[in-house]
Task: inverse folding
């Protein structure tokens, strides 16, 4: 009876551990369009992460501008695990040097969201203070359909 009880307890612990363990991530899990959860942000509004082949990624960042968001351009992304054997890459960095400033981005992938931290250093002797920002992004599920796509009516077969 004790043996059976211990077996059930061990199975329950194993099941509970599997239910609360974090989701494994690969570099490809970063791929997609990520939208800032704060729709009123004055900073980064959108991230577009794409494959560059062989587990390499690129990122395109958009910042708040008027009337349309400013495109920072595309740069490479480097992903990281917690140690040299860890293929569960949930962290990444990217760097944007825009001449007047340099911005280091860190990304923390958490399944349904990315936490983006940005460290901006001004290089133009303008007197502006370097600054840090943290934003949270959710994956966009919207699919854009080009306006020129022709849709044929479905005809019933007889």
Result:
């Amino acid at each position: 009876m004790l043996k059976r009880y211990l077996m059930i307890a061990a199975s329950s612990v194993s099941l509970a551990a599997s239910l609360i363990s974090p989701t494994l991530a690969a570099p490809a899990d970063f791929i997609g369009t990520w939208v800032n959860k704060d729709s009123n942000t004055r900073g980064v509004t959108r991230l577009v992460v794409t494959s560059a082949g062989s587990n390499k990624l690129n990122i395109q960042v958009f910042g708040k501008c008027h009337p349309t968001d400013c495109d920072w351009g595309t740069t490479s992304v480097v992903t990281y695990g917690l140690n040299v054997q860890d293929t569960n890459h949930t962290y990444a960095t990217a760097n944007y040097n825009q001449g007047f400033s340099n911005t280091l981005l860190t990304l923390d992938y958490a399944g349904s969201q990315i936490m983006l931290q940005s460290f901006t250093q001004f290089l133009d002797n303008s007197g502006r203070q370097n600054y840090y920002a943290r934003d949270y992004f959710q994956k966009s599920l919207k699919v854009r359909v080009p306006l020129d796509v022709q849709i044929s009516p479905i005809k019933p077969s007889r």
